[in-house]
Amino acid sequence: MRVCVLTRVVNFCALCYHTIMIDDIFSSSISYIDTVLCDGETPANISAAAHILKQGGLVAFPTETVYGLGADALNADAAAKIYAAKGRPSDNPLIVHIADVEDVYKLATNVPEQATLLMEAFWPGPLTMILPKRELVPDGTTGGLKTVAIRMPSHPIALSLIRESGVFIAAPSANTSGRPSPTTAEHVYEDMQGRIEMILDGGAVGIGIESTIVDLTGSIPTILRPGFITKAMLENIVGEVAIDKALIEPDPNLRPKAPGMKYTHYAPKGKLSIVETSDVVASINSLISDYTGKGYRVAVLASAEHADEYQCDNILTLGQANKGETIAAHLYGALRECDARSIDYIFSESFYQTDLGGAIMNRLLKAAGQRVIRDE
Ligand code: TXA
Ligand code: MG
User: Fold this and answer.
1) 362 CB within 6 A, ligand 1
2) What pTM does this model have?
């Protein structure tokens, strides 16, 4: 089969349009794949991406949270390619993306009433549910676990891709393992160029941090990863909700129930610290002066309220402290920008102030390896 793909950008310096044949994509060598970056809103490109998925290939696509790196979830060989492309530890399971609520029952058994209520309330959307898996879901997709993570995203390109391919799409965030998750197609290209067949460009994502993960295999729904859907929003629908203890107490003896939460994540190349002193601006200015004096390149992750008060060449403003959605949307892009500017040391304010504060600080603390500077 030969499918025409109109590609928008292959090289970000030289924007160009050209036509590629699907056969050409598959004839590229296994070790280096010529990655096609194309407009995700063009139906022919979604068809081409769907074809790649059906053939067991890899396609990155936008979701409302972050870009995902997709493969056929029921094809263990295809799922294995995700781990190779990301450099991801094999015990870290993948989320399976579906486009139809009914498909939950094809992938999971013992779906409790609470799960049904949560699906009705939050799907399609940024909520992932952990449920007991059916036999047909390969161990390679679930990292050997007997449970499966399922989510129905709301992004129209993601939904079209799932529907058109006819496969359930296993998709972690489309970053190299450890790096900040991608919120634009350009971020995906940076990490995945040469490793995957195609990237569907849907522009910048809306939310900017990954979905909330809720475990529904016990009697009380338990949050394994905080996200845009908050504990209060979940409790509003199903009553009591717990939080995985390992998320609250950073105790090395407690293993997080979501295997991925135990790894260093979202980390920029520079050393990131969060500053929580009584006078944050003065402390950060003093650190900037110390480190620039030693010849290092320094950046600040700032709230809009304080941005003008820093004496630094690299001030990255995440948004107003009381606008959690803006801060979440800018967080990963700012961490990547620090890498692009070859920053050695990054100092960040804390952003606890809003409903999304828990999710934002979970990511920021992980990116910082839990380094927090406090008053002595
Ligand atoms: O917003 C999102 O969820 C994005 C988009 C692409 O959908 N995906 C995403 O996937 O963040 P990933 O692979 O980066 O993170 C998935 C997390 C990992 O921490 C993994 O350990 C956990 O989900 N997980 C997956 N299956 C699990 C299971 N059966 N039990 C517990 N945790 C699981
Ligand atoms: Mg990830």
Assistant:
1) no
2) 0.92
